[in-house]
Amino acid sequence: MEALVIHAAGDLRVENLPTPELGAGQLRVRVRCGGICGSDLHYYQHGGFGTIRVKEPMVLGHEVAGVIEAVGGDVKGFTPGERIAISPSWPCGACRYCQLGLQNHCLDMRYYGSAMRTPHVQGAFRQEIVVETHQAHRLAASVSDSEGAMAEPLAVALHAVQRAGSLLGKKVLVTGCGPIGALVIIAARRAGAAHIVVTDVGSFTLGKALKVGADEVVNVAEQPDGLARFTADKGQFDVLFEASGNERALRGAFDALRPRGIIVQLGLGGEMTLPINTIVAKEFDLRGAFRFHEEFAIAVELLNKGLVDVKPLISASLSYRDSARAFTLAADRSQAMKVLLNFD
After folding, report:
1. How far is CA 344 from its chain centroid?
2. What is the pLDDT of residue 51?
3. What is the mean pLDDT of residues 100-105?
4. Can you tell me the mean pLDDT for 300-322?
5. What pLDDT shows up at residue 104?
6. C-beta of residue 28 within 8 angstroms of C-beta of residue 69
């Protein structure tokens, strides 16, 4: 089979790799569609992010959907021909955090397309992959392969919303409207948010924010003081989802967040310097949101039941053999949100 293998920054190759042997309790899946994530872009553009670097050839990708080709001897409940979304998360189940129900903090996590451990965990941008049954989630006939590949980033957004607590009737601010920020809009609205305002620096992404449910958008590149009208009486927003990973975006939202407001930081960037005095004086609750666990199944269920619509965020689908063009397009927020790779 062919796979997309990163060797170093800018060095992404289509290579022939053997398909792993199918074991008992496993599924062999023909990958049909995969979404390019921000981490994939970091590997492609910079060879990694932070202290995480590509040290050996690694198959990229962790947002995929496909069709079951074969099932292992002990498999029950799955048959060849069924279409599935594949969770890229494989926690050990035995460490202290897995036992506490915090599987996203597993001490022996295997996560597709990740250089966080060595040997690296090979990813899913390949024509065929062998997965465990617990990673497989059936897709309804009404859900396309492209939508199925969106289950993983939707699960990230659902986990962030879960970290915020109840959003019923709340006023929500989302800073940063890449694919994750836009999916947070969808998830927050589904959770009962009454009013959602979104900030970004690009008109294209903000237009998508309105299409997926934002009530208002603010282009902070054109209106640097666009949040000023929300600062009366110590702030108007109950919850802030910071999805840009940008320090200025986070700090700039503090005046618009009410006392005892909740900040959920899910955007990853460089280290930040924060106004601790403001956090103390307004009694903010600062929470991180990292990956997901049970939210993947919830994401697929929402897609299967037609309770969320991610189609407006799918900008293009290109062949995996045209990966350079696909990755360039995925990095251009003036014309693309989620770019998908076609493995058929």
Report:
1. 23
2. 85
3. 97
4. 97
5. 96
6. yes
DSSP symbol at 114: B
The answer to whether 2-150+310-342 and 157-288 have equal CATH topology is no
Strands (E), the chain: 2-8, 11-16, 26-35, 48-49, 52-53, 58-59, 63-71, 83-86, 89-90, 110-111, 128-132, 136-138, 171-175, 195-200, 216-219, 237-242, 257-265, 285-288, 314-319, 338-342
Q: Across residues 145-149, what is the average pLDDT?
A: 98
pLDDT band at 339 (very low <50, low <70, confident <90, very high): very high
Q: DSSP class of residue 126?
A: B
Q: Which residues contact 98 (CB under 8 A, 6 or more apart)?
A: 91, 92, 106
Assigned CATH topology for domain 2-150+310-342: Quinone Oxidoreductase; Chain A, domain 1 (3.90.180)
| Owner of token pair 């009366």 | 232
Neighbours of 334 (CB within 10 A): 8
* DSSP letter assigned to residue 151: H
| Residue spans per domain, the chain | 2-150+310-342, 157-288
The C-alpha angle with vertex 297 and arms to 185 and 133, in degrees rounded to 5, equals 150
pLDDT value, residue 304 = 98
Q: What is the CATH number of domain 157-288?
A: 3.40.50.720
Tell me: cis bond preceding 119? Omega within 30 of 0 counts. yes
- What is the structure's pLDDT at 109? 95
Instruction: Identify whether the C-beta of residue 124 lies closer than 8 Å to the C-beta of residue 79.
Output: no
Residues 6+ apart with CB under 8 A from 91: 98, 103, 104, 106, 108, 109, 110, 293
Average pLDDT for the chain: 96
How much of the chain exceeds pLDDT 70, in percent? 100
Structure tokens at 8: 């170093």
Integer angstrom CA distances of residue 26 from 14, 66, 135, 143: 26, 15, 10, 24
Q: Is residue 50 over pLDDT 90?
A: no
Count of beta carbons in the 10 Å neighbourhood of residue 236 = 19
132 CA to centre of own chain: 21
Strand ranges (DSSP E) for 166-323?
Answer: 171-175, 195-200, 216-219, 237-242, 257-265, 285-288, 314-319
**Other beta carbons less than 10 A from residue 246's beta carbon:** 17
